[in-house]
Structure formats: C-alpha cells, structure tokens
Amino acid sequence: MTPEDREIAEQKTAEARKKRRPGYYRKARRKARRMGLAFESDEHAAQLLEERGIDILRDDVSMLDGGDEGDKPLAGKGAGALGQQDAANMTINDAERLAEVHAIQRELVRRRRLRLGLLLLRLLFFVALPTFVVGWFYYTQATDLYETKAEFVIQKSENTGTLGLGGLLAGTGFANASDSIVVQGYLTSREAMERLDAEEGYRAHFEQDFIDRLHRLPEGASFEAAYKIYKKYVKVGFDPTEGVIRLEVVAADPETSQRFAEALIKYAEERVDHLSQRVREDQMEGSMQVYAQAEQAMLDAQQRVLELQKERGVLSAEAEIASQMSIVNALEIQLEAKRMSLAELLDNPQPNQVRVDALMREIRRSEDRVKELRAQLTETTDNSLSLAEVSAELKIAETNLATRQVMLQEALQQLEAARIEANRQVRYLSMGVIPIAPDVPTYPRKLENTLLAFVVFMGIYILISLTVSILREQISV
Asked: In terms of DSSP H, where are the helices of 19-41?
C-alpha cells in the first residue's frame, strides 16, 4: 500500500469512528458477512473493515468484497482460514485499488458540495430572504418620520448667600433634580398624552392613511395602543449632572413634530409653575394672615380711641388737664393777690369794712372755684367722670393703638420678606435648544435597520443550528 493510500485509509477510518452509530455497526456487520470475514461482534466487524481501509457507509460492494461464505459470523474458524482469506484479498491489483480510492474521493467531494449547497440554501431561506424583505420594506414602504429636538432646564431664583449644602448645590444640576424628574415623568405620562390628543389631535395624526401599517395607529384603537405609540415617538431624557431635559418628538411631517414639541414644552412650563405655586402660596398664606390680623387689631384700637373721645367729649386728656390747670393757676394767682389786698386793708387801724367784705367774698368765690376745678380733675360724680379717669382711659387706648401700629409694621415687614422669599422659590423653564422642524426625514434609518435585521437573523440561525446539532449528538449517543 502506498503512503497516499494509507493516508486516505486513515482519514476514512477517522471519519468512520466519528460517525459510529447503531446504523454504522449494522452496515459493518452486513459488509463483513458479504466479504466472508470472521468476527465476534459488530464492533469487531467494523474494526476489521477499518483496518483494511474499506468504507463501511458505502452501500455498493467493490471488488474488495470477497465471496460470501455465509450469513453468520465465522467465529469458530481457525487462524489458518483467516490467513487464506487475507492472502486472497491481497491479490487485488493496484489499478483496482487506485480506482476505489478515486471513487471515495469523488464521493467525499460530492458530499461536501452537497452540504455546502444545503448550507447556502438554508442561509438564503432563513437569513438572506428575511433581510431582503426588511430592506425592501424600509426602502420602499416605510413612511418618512421627522424628529424635532429641544433642550431646556428648570431654574429657580436662589439667595446667593445661602449657606450649607443647599448653597453648595445651588448652581449645579442637582439643585432642581427633583423638579426635573417630576417634569420628565409628566411628559411621558398618560395625562400629557391625553391633553396633547385633546388639544393637538395626536391620535388622529397617526391614524392617517399615508402612514405605513407598521407605524400607523388603527382607526378606533384603544387608548393604550395610542399610548404605546406615544411612548415610542416621544422620548424625554434627563441628565442629572447638567440638569438638562432633552425632548425628542417624532411625527409624520416636520410641522406637526414641531407643533407637538412646542405643546409639550408649554405643558411642562405649566406644570413647573404649578409646582412652585404651591410653595409660594404656603409661604405667603401665613404672613398674609398675620398681617390681616394685625391690621384689624390696629383698626379696632383706633376705633376704641375714637369712641372714648366721643363718649367723654375729650379730644385730648392732656390738653384738657393743661387747660384746667392753667385756669386753676390763674385763679390761684388772683386769689393770692386778693389775699394780699385784704391783708393790707386789715393792717389799717380803721379798715374800710365794705371793701374788706367785698374782698372776702371775692376770695371765697375764687377758693370755691378752685376747689370745683380741682374736683373735676380728680373726683367722679354721677354725671361725669374725672379728667384723671378720662385721661387714664384715653392713655390706655392710645398706648394700645401705638402697640398695634408697631405690630402692624412688623407684620408688613414679615409679609414683604415672605413675598421676597416666595419670589426666590419661583421655578421657570429656560430653553436651551428651541424646537425647529427638520427639512429631511430622520426615520427610518434604512441601511442601519437592514444591517441590524441581517445580524439578528444570522444570530437566530446560528443559535438554532447549534441547538439542533447539540440535540442530534446527544440523541445519537
């Protein structure tokens, strides 16, 4: 046997050993019987055939197959008979052996071509054809979609002198992260979609006939189906490091996508105002109540002073007392002068009795008047109160009025401080990128989607092929 023949025989033996299955051994037994080989078992028969370089899987019987010595294994024959058969088989000439080798090679080539053809056919059917269908749809049938982008941030007025952690984060994106997250959740919610549909006709836009079936919303579809379309074509992203909210709105025409984006930004601004309005109202409500109470108390105190002035007939207790005391002082001065004149008259040896009596009567009247005036200052009668009591009442009322006025000023200052603080809490939406309608369609991305479909189908095919191969190997063991 030439080295080339030996190499081919070893190659066939290796392939046969890899494919040892119950059917393989049955074929080996039948071929060994036809050749008249003595074997003890199916495995022994396969081993004998492999040692002689015979392809067990081939159904035809070549000239290497000797005569048939029976259907049963010749396990009982001796070594002499086996040697004679081997000697007879060795008489085969080289030409026949070479022809057999070429036939085996042609069979191997045919099988390889057949397997390659089947592989290409499977790839064509399971990978190429679905990829072609996807590409045909995106290039010829898919509706052009336009995407409008916008960026905005939520800001609020803060005191630059704020201390603590809040002051450190005031200028960063974390300061209004909670408000931004709330706005992001609102824009992707069913509430925003329902309002957009009611005001701008979102569902009617995607129910139009020119939109392809894959992207079109069926007429009379449920709210959940429309909401799935909304979540697919309205994307809201929030960057916590920068505090920027990015909005992307997709529609079937550029003007509509811009209109939807502007409407959603308006909704977001209203929601931001609503969030800050509650804070402002809470801060202003207490201060306004305190101011209103202080103002009412001041008015009541002022009304009490006015009522006392009307009731007592006294505009100013101090002025009345000063007027009364001036009269008393003038009477006392006159009284003292009359007493001096009376003393001078009485110092005469023979005073004029008429003048003395007149002076004494004048002095008595002046003293009575002084007593009466002093009594009005301190004594209370059934008809009127004393000026001292009236002064005390007025002074208490005026002191209360002054206190209420001070309290009203303090309440006003607190109200102004609360108003300033409320203004600092105002959130407002600041646009970074204004929504502008694109002039070329953004979707579909035809080449990218086709390549992605190819990768997906190829991955599915490889996964299924590996699974089938593993299962076949496990079953055949």
From this structure: 22-35
Give the other-Cβ count within 10 Å of 54's Cβ. 25
State the Cα–Cα distance between residues 45 and 24, nearest whole angstrom.
Answer: 11
Tell me if the pTM is above 0.90.
no
Residues counted in the chain: 477
Q: What is the pLDDT of residues 134-186, one digit of tens each?
A: 999 988 888 889 999 999 998 876 544 444 444 444 444 445 688 888 889 99
- Direct distance between the N- and C-terminal alpha carbons of the chain, in angstroms, rounded to an integer: 34
Q: d(Cα 306, Cα 236) in Å, to the nearest integer? A: 66
User: Range of 86's domain?
Assistant: 3-92
**Whether residue 327 sits in one domain with residue 373:** yes
What's the rounded Cα separation, in Å, for the pair 61 and 46? 15
Per the domain annotation, does 384 fall within a domain? yes
Final residue in a domain of this structure, among 28, 63, 92: 92
Give a yes or no: residue 116 inside a domain.
Answer: no
Can you give the pLDDT at residue 90?
A: 45
What is the CB neighbour count within 10 angstroms for residue 118? 10
390 and 468 in one domain? no
Burial of 425 (0-12, 13-18, 19+ CB in 10 A): middle
Whether the CB-CB separation of 105 and 7 falls below 8 Å is answered with no
Question: What are 274-325's pLDDT values in tens digits?
Answer: 776 766 677 677 788 888 888 888 888 888 877 777 776 665 656 666 676 7
